[in-house]
Write a sequence for this structure.
């Protein structure tokens, strides 16, 4: 019996019990779809994290005070903070290949204007380079300038959401607002940026960094010292050189050896690598779950094929009596199992691709279809069919023709 004739016989055997065949493939459809959807969810989560990190600023280098052993409960305590404005100016003047140097110092205050009062608003003290470092833009008016910081001008730039809550459709420029106990003049309104990470950039108010130190500083801040300085390199390729230059300039500025600086540098790559390790663990977990679904589907195929062998014992004996060899019988039942798995694989691919799209559109998590997941899932389905179909096929091939013909 040639291959194509055997395939036709196998197909006829499957179509005799369409309902049972469909239910058998359903396990594989679910398993294959689970592989594709779960890989899409994992890739979407990874892309979302990367986008959020990029939205915080391109080619960002974070400079922080170094930590030394000691402090509360052995958590470590920071050495002297970064000096404002001396350390910022040293980097700005002494390091080439950067777009800007900025810093942020936050406080939470109440804002009042006219009859409106907003509580628990994040007030961020920063510098003129904030826009370049954080890749932000002003929609109306202007941003904080170097002169504002030098003169400690009490001006404020509102996030778009805050501007809407305080002034509605009214032009906020030139309006007075009271932040805590200090009166400010609105100088600008930021473009809408939305939520990045856990921060709602539209719900912030920006004021000169020097004013935060003067009006809102507490002993916790340690005077005019900073917990972080943000530096934006011109390109990703220049980051390594920029980091070396920052180390040399700050070490000279602060009078410490470059071999033992009292500050540290961190890039977005560090954050991305940490996020990547988390998403990889998440992906592995999802992969195991999807793999278990495929194994369950394969066990279903093996179970149904064993039932089929039992039900068709007389048919097997008759085929052998008419000249079918054991390998022909084995091939027939193996092809039935493989056909079931391939049909389940194709159905799973359609369900998985469609499910990834629907889940991304209607769900709260972003999905990104991984092209490699489609052939991978299909190959897994075929492997499951061969692996779990071989035993029932072998059982059928080993039946004795005489005993098979006697079987009721």
């Amino acid at each position: 019996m040639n291959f194509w004739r055997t395939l036709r016989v196998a197909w006829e055997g499957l179509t005799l019990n369409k309902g049972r065949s469909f239910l058998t493939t359903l396990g594989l459809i679910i398993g294959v779809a689970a592989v594709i959807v779960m890989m899409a969810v994992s890739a979407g989560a990874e892309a979302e994290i990367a986008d959020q990190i990029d939205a915080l600023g391109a080619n960002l280098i974070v400079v922080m005070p170094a930590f030394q052993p000691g402090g509360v409960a052995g958590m470590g305590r920071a050495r002297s903070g970064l000096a404002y404005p001396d350390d910022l100016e040293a980097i700005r003047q002494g390091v080439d290949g950067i777009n800007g140097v900025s810093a942020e110092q936050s406080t939470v205050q109440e804002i009042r204007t006219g009859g409106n009062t907003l509580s628990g608003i994040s007030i961020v003290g920063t510098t003129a380079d904030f826009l370049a470092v954080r890749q932000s833009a002003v929609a109306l008016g202007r941003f904080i300038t170097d002169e504002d910081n030098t003169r400690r001008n009490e001006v404020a730039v509102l996030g778009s959401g805050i501007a809407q809550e305080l002034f509605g459709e009214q032009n906020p420029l030139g309006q007075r607002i009271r932040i805590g106990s200090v009166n400010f003049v609105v100088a600008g309104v930021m473009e809408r940026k939305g939520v990045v990470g856990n921060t709602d950039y539209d719900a912030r108010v920006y004021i000169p960094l020097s004013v935060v130190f003067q009006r809102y500083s507490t002993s916790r801040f340690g005077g005019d010292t900073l917990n972080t300085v943000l530096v934006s390199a011109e390109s990703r390729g220049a980051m390594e050189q920029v980091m070396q230059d920052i180390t040399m300039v700050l070490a000279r500025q602060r009078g410490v050896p470059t071999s033992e600086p009292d500050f540290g540098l961190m890039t977005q790559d560090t954050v991305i690598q940490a996020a990547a390790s988390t998403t990889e663990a998440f992906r592995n977990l999802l992969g195991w779950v999807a793999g278990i679904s495929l194994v369950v589907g394969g066990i279903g195929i093996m179970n149904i094929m064993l039932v089929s062998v039992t039900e068709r014992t007389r048919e097997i004996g008759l085929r052998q009596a008419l000249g079918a060899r054991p390998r022909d019988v084995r091939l027939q039942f193996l092809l039935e199992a493989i056909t079931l798995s391939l049909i389940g694989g194709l159905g799973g691919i359609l369900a998985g691709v469609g499910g990834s799209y629907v889940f991304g559109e209607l769900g709260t998590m972003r999905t990104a279809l991984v092209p490699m997941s489609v052939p991978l899932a299909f190959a897994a389905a075929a492997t499951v069919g061969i692996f779990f179909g071989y035993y029932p096929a072998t059982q059928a091939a080993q039946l004795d023709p005489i005993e098979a013909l006697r079987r009721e």
Remarks:
- The chain has 13 helices and 17 strands.
- The radius of gyration is 34 Å.
- The chain has two domains: 3-52+274-406, 60-267.
